[in-house]
User: Fold this.
Amino acid sequence: MRRIPSEKPSSRPEKIDTRVTTNPNFYPIILAGGRGTRFWPLSRKRRAKQLLPLDGKRTMIQQTVSRLLPLAVPKRFWVITNEYLQREIARQLPRLAKAQILAEPVGRNTAPAIGLAAFLLLRKEPGAVIGMFPSDHVIADEDRFRQILREGVQIAAAGENIVVLGIRPTRPETGYGYIEAGSSFEDRAFRVRRFTEKPDAERAAGFLVAGNYFWNSGIFLWSARTLTNALREHLPKAAQVLEQIAAAFGTRQFASTFRKFYPKCENISVDYAILEPRSAKGERDSNIICLSADFGWNDLGSWTALHEHRMAKQQFPDGNLISGQGAFTLNAERNYIHAPQKFVAAVGVKNLVVVDSPDALLITTLEQAQDVGKIVKYLDKKKMSKLV
Amino acid sequence: MRRIPSEKPSSRPEKIDTRVTTNPNFYPIILAGGRGTRFWPLSRKRRAKQLLPLDGKRTMIQQTVSRLLPLAVPKRFWVITNEYLQREIARQLPRLAKAQILAEPVGRNTAPAIGLAAFLLLRKEPGAVIGMFPSDHVIADEDRFRQILREGVQIAAAGENIVVLGIRPTRPETGYGYIEAGSSFEDRAFRVRRFTEKPDAERAAGFLVAGNYFWNSGIFLWSARTLTNALREHLPKAAQVLEQIAAAFGTRQFASTFRKFYPKCENISVDYAILEPRSAKGERDSNIICLSADFGWNDLGSWTALHEHRMAKQQFPDGNLISGQGAFTLNAERNYIHAPQKFVAAVGVKNLVVVDSPDALLITTLEQAQDVGKIVKYLDKKKMSKLV
Assistant:
């Protein structure tokens, strides 16, 4: 049995086991610029998925930072986000200084974001090992998470290795990237043979059967030197721009330099920019290591995933997970209903997702909740900016 | 084609055709003491179904009065309600004096309510003909409605006749009372053979096939003298009490007399108290006349009935009737969604009824919406009085 975090985590600062040795060179970089449109109407441009308390009382980004604090003191963290979210993130993470929360002037996906952090750290701490962490995932076993990270940091610190945490697939998911593992590197670690972005259902089923495929968790570890070298090799234009921005850090020109030059970077993910071309060199030469990460990972991709995740942690009567000021159910089964300000009555309904917010009401099904992003696309197109 | 009232009736006072001759002895009594719990969460103890604008901009009771105004000047109307609703009814019906809106100290069903009106009128206008009208029904063809009422008033004014308006059944409804018509009385009017309260499905189907059965509309016409005599015969104790209360009308003792004595009346409907025992005398001697009323009647018994009624009047895309601050639908069909303050997004849902209110959210199906009353029973039992 995995250790399951309690349903209602305390809002007090988490107790940290100070006996844990923090790695002196480890710097966690939290990527928090996403929108998470599939959690509309709760997720908005100024209150994205990572800033919501979807699983417990603390928000996703608060949980992301808390579970890393035993590995790095607060001043080692960087958060990379956008101008819409910067202020709220600073509010939610009072242990971080405001200068540690960088707002991209425009979103450029993960490669420029983590690249900027790498160039900044290279100047400050040439031996730094960087961990890149999405800010909106849940992790069931946090002790195990930290144990695997410590192993990963050691692998990343030794030479030119790029470490990616891989999750053993449990279903033929078509929404994730897959990692094909090659030869064994060490215990639970493999050389990466190939990356495959979102496969179709047939290929996904094949990967599941094959046994040597992992889901790409989006968590990477590498030294600042390895990452900056990789950027110079695979994304030379962006590398030059990012180096220029990093050189201005701490000066009065930083904000204007950041705003002026960052948009020149390509809009591209780490996976496409570095990992896929690098892996084409062959598993020996690419130095990409997949570390099998069995810590109960879930990226909470939709209301349906959240419903499943919470159901797995705790049984609710008839599968109804209702947040409300009281509730009445009759012939109601497997519904996710979020209307925290209201009394909720559900009569004769099954497999629904209903989410109430002050200005919008979502009514969908567990089956179709992955289409919620289409609502946000519609609202964007119609310029209904108050609702997005 | 019947004349269909426009979707959004003006809130200005309705223009009245003054060429219509009002019947000098006709007094409409509007019964407005019901709760209409199946329209929860919109209907509440202090804002019952009849006070809601369920079909257009004007409320059900405003429409009830408006469609009768060409037949009787405002001072001829009486409204019988309860203390929770009295003030709001007075607000909604500014043409009526406050003294015309009586609040029962306790609900005693229709027999005592209409009986009180009869004893009051007998003192004031011995030749009065009383019409008893529910305050929460819709009528599609109001001209036809008034034409039939004029005929009914004539029948009621002549002798000891009790006139009930009967609706031709269109389905084997088990929720209504049925009237079995006997011999012909005059054009479109029959002597009543028997009343049958809510039959089971098999009997209801038989009534539909037989062809000589009508739904009991709850609209009755009779002279004050006939009604008071019938009460003295069939409900002697209540008749005595009501006569005593009526005698105090206009004096300073009226309020206290009403409050003290009215609760002594039996809690019973006109149908059970008078019509059923009277009809047992045989169709010749009972003098109960059923007038066939083909004016597009609907008692809007549930959210489902309201959805059907509004769909019959106007086509909505995919059968979705959505009140909201804008809406987005995708694979959504035949839903009734009321969230007038919010943007509504419905994705992949069918046959749902969703009603938002400031403190409660209802989620049910068109099929199960008749069970909404059970929610109110639960709330009553749990003494959650703010929600009922």
